[in-house]
Amino acid sequence: MSVFRTSGRLGLLAVAVCAFAACGKNEADAPQPPTASGPQLVSAPPPRDALPDCPRLASALGGLVEGLEAVDDAGTRQDTPESYGISCAWRAPDDGAAIGAIVIVDNEPLTAHDMQRAGMYVEDPRVAALGGFVAIPDALLDGNAPLGPVGPQVIVGPVTVTLASNGRGRAAEITLDQAVDGAVAVHRSMR
Prior knowledge:
Elements: H1 5-19, H2 54-61, E1 69-70, E2 76-79, E3 83-92, E4 97-106, H3 112-117, E5 121-122, H4 125-128, E6 133-135, E7 153-156, E8 159-165, H5 176-189
Antiparallel strand pairs: 1-3, 2-3, 3-4, 4-8, 5-6, 6-7, 7-8
Helix pairs in contact: 2-5
């Protein structure tokens, strides 16, 4: 399996988030990370027809998207022989904030070894508790850094959850730690 599919996923999410962005001022407080709930281990990926819709993803993401409007509650679904998934975006017309989430289930999942070879592997205890790892460019996960158009991929078995933002308005206050917490909450919600 090629590691180069990863950059295509990141680019797709970055384009989706930026496409829904609007200009504005940053007047809102930073959103709170979602609270952890659910099982510690995710056993099997959801089947195609059981992938969460955008309202269910928003519920799992909690404060990260609270007060933002869903661009489309149905999201954008993809279904290929290699993978299937959904991407959702939320925006705030008042301050230009935009946040996106993508869930992909791969028939040939990215492995820790793949990401180590690509220089993108990060071990994180929140994700390790689910049996997974984080993939992020240059393997640099500074939890206090702001979430941008290329967010951390939280990979647990064949399921990858990625969050990204346009860095405007209230989205500028979201950190990589909050993005990882949100992705972990999404993984747990799919159980």
